[in-house]
Amino acid sequence: MKMAPGQCEEKPQPGDLIEIYRLIYQHWGIYVGDGYIIHLAAPSEDAHPGASSMMFVLSDKALVKKEELSFVVGDDEYKVNNLLDDEYEPRPVHAIVHEAYSLLGRELPYSVISSNCEHFVTDLRYGKAESRQVRKAVEVVAGVGLEVVDFVADLFGSGNKEKKNTQ
Q1: Bridge partner list, 78
Q2: Which of 3, 15, 29, 164 is the most buried if burial means most Cβ atoms within 10 Å?
Q3: Residue positions annotated with a catalytic role
Q4: How far apart are the first and last CA of the chain?
């Protein structure tokens, strides 16, 4: 069954990771209860749907904000996704929520590769800053790169074989 925009099958609990599906990427927040998440947002913009995400990607700073989940999600879909629970022991909920609140209003370094919103929430939940989104992107780029290298090697390699066979 397809969910209505802005809805989730599972009711979030404090300390849960919230994955919000944007057009070409996922935005992440940590659920802190009472309908709110704490997340990274560009200092000069809102993180709600329709906000210019390109400026955020190009930014080197992010602001830790507490906002209503429904506001940040808008018409997009989202889900509870504690994606690393099988790999790492989640920290105690009170520690996750306390640390998230302690960071509110702070401007943090931001990098789409090494310190994005997914890194932020996985660090809060597990004490490990990881981004599956970045890992997948790197794998795709590396895969495409290897395909190009194989193609070029085949292209030039076959020409060398023909030359060797005719000599």
Answers
A1: 20
A2: 29
A3: 27, 39, 117
A4: 66
